[in-house]
């Protein structure tokens, strides 16, 4: 790995694998996330960096030889591995050919390429040798993007002979909060009641914290009934002292879509389930637009099938946001 961006992505992937119970051996020239080093199932193998030797051919050759020797020494100390994950290579960084080849010989395992969202001009210029290596030596290409927002160039993707899986955009923040909110008028009362029933059912036993904000206009009787329905598992409040900050921390929002909510959701990077009120087409028009602008937006109708549709979408969304990406 070279740049800090590559390091950050690779270390987030290491953390995600550790959370899932895997052991991780990480080969790189630097480790920025020092907390990783404390994980019992994590092992860091430091390789000397290429950057300081780039202008000195003799020094560069010495660095490469040292890196290869450290990989060879690893053979008697680690493995077998379930997978060999290469960040970026071979869609770039072809100078790693010998090192990756050595790893593949000593540690037979499916090789996976993890690539960012955009193939830049420099990498596209090496597309022929890169695709040859990718299709010959790798089992899958994992892309750190949402294809709804940004996908690989179709002409390039068509030449990839192995499975392509989009992992979504990496988010370094662990998010475990679900927010349910909307307007405070009578039209929203039914939305809160129906949504609450589904959220309670679908999140039972999962490590999520749900907060439901009704707004200040809900009458006392309706608010008390909603709080009683929620029980201890869901926090029901009239308002938040700082909804903007809570939105930034949320993994998922479920809401109607008035003007203010539409603007708020445009500014946060999380999953959104929106259920426009049906009294006019104002909210549905916004919802369709939001789904065109942002990835991971689901638009549901507040009709007789709302609970069924919400349960299905919520199940998939909870699986996705449970994975630290």
Write structural notes for this entry:
By secondary structure, the protein is an alpha/beta fold. The protein is built from twelve helices and twelve strands. The protein has helices at residues 4-19, 57-74, 97-106, 121-125, 127-137, 154-157, 189-203, 220-230, 243-249, 259-266, 282-293, 306-322; strands at 24-28, 42-46, 84-87, 111-115, 140-143, 164-166, 177-181, 209-213, 234-237, 250-255, 271-274, 297-299. The chain has a six-stranded parallel β-sheet with strand order 9-8-7-10-11-12, with helices on both faces. Helix 7 (189-203) crosses helix 12 (306-322). The radius of gyration is 24 Å and the shape is elongated. The mean pLDDT is 88.
Total number of helical segments?
Answer: 12
Low-confidence stretches: none
**Distance between termini?**
20 Å
H/E order of the elements? HEEHEHEHHEHEEHEHEHEHEHEH
- If strands are numbered along the chain, what order do they take across the biggest sheet? 9-8-7-10-11-12
Oligomer: single chain
Q: Count the E strands.
A: 12
Rg calculated over all Cα atoms: 24 Å
Taking all residues together, what is the mean pLDDT? Answer: 88
Q: Helicity, in percent?
A: 40-55%
Largest sheet: 6 strands, parallel
Could you say which structural class the secondary elements and strand pairing correspond to?
A: alpha/beta
Shape: elongated
Portion in beta strands = 15-25%
């Amino acid at each position: 790995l070279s740049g800090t961006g590559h390091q950050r992505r690779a270390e987030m992937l290491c953390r995600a694998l550790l959370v899932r119970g895997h052991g991780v051996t990480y080969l790189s020239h630097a480790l920025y996330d020092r907390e990783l080093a404390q994980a019992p199932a994590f092992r860091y193998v430091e390789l000397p960096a290429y950057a300081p030797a780039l202008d000195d051919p003799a020094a560069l050759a010495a660095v490469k030889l040292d890196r290869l020797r450290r990989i060879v020494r690893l053979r008697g100390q680690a493995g077998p591995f379930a997978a060999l994950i290469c960040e970026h290579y071979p869609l770039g960084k072809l100078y790693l050919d010998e090192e990756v080849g050595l790893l593949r010989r000593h540690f037979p395992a499916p090789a996976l390429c993890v690539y960012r969202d955009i193939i830049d001009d420099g990498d596209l210029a090496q597309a022929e040798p890169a695709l040859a290596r990718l299709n010959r030596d790798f089992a899958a290409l994992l892309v750190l993007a949402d294809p709804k927002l940004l996908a690989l160039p179709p002409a390039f993707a068509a030449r990839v002979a192995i499975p392509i899986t989009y992992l979504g955009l990496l988010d370094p923040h662990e998010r475990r909060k679900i927010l349910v909110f909307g307007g405070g008028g009578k039209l929203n009362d039914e939305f809160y009641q129906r949504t609450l029933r589904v959220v309670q059912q679908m999140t039972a036993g999962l490590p999520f914290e749900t907060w439901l904000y009704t707004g200040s206009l809900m009458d006392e009787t309706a608010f008390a009934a909603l709080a009683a329905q929620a029980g201890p598992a869901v926090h029901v409040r009239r308002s938040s002292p700082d909804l903007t900050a809570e939105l930034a921390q949320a993994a998922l929002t479920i809401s109607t879509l008035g003007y203010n909510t539409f603007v708020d959701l445009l500014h946060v990077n999380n999953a959104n389930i929106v259920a426009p009120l049906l009294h006019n087409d104002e909210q549905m028009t916004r919802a369709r637009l939001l789904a065109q602008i942002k990835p991971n937006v689901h638009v549901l109708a507040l009709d007789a099938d709302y609970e069924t549709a919400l349960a299905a979408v919520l199940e998939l969304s909870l699986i996705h946001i449970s994975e630290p990406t």
